[in-house]
Amino acid sequence: MNLFLRDYIGIKIHKTDLNLTSLIKSKLEAFNLAPEQNLIMMLLWEKDGLTQNQLGEILNKDKTNIARMASNLEAKGFIKRVCNQCDRRSLELHLTACGKELGKQIIPITEELNEIICKGISKEDLEALERILSKINENVQNGSE
């Protein structure tokens, strides 16, 4: 079976990712927040005080990327990095007052984006999509071993 480039699932997922990232970027631009930085902020708005290592595990990012993004967020005044009391090698990320205020503006935007993205898709289809994406991720991980 010969597939055309447009038929490969990886191409379709990549195109979807580019479109999603572009939409998110356009909505966050006014807040001086990149889409990847927003992922960190979303996690901190959910649970303040996560360590850089925890964020790396959740987002599947290496320590260098997390440290760079944390540094940028700190320079913008959204977070502060604090040494963990129990393990001095571990840095916790805490929201500043500015970062908490930003959440009040960004969270409604991300909820609106989720509604736009999921418009016309049933709960059952979304659950199926989640299962399929999980299976694809599992296949990719198994294929790279």
Description:
A two-stranded antiparallel ribbon has the order 1-2. The chain contains six helices and two strands. The longest helix is centred in the C-terminal third of the chain and has 22 residues, at 97-118. It is mostly helical and 145 residues long. Helix 1 (9-28) crosses helix 5 (97-118) and helix 3 packs across helix 4. Helix content is 66%, strand content 7%. Strand 1 and strand 2 form a beta hairpin. The mean pLDDT is 91.
Summarize the structure.
This protein is mostly helical and 145 residues long. Helix content is 66%, strand content 7%.
Secondary-structure topology with pairs:
Layout: H1 9-28, H2 35-46, H3 52-59, H4 63-75, E1 79-83, E2 91-95, H5 97-118, H6 123-143
Antiparallel strand pairs: 1-2
Helix pairs in contact: 1-5, 3-4
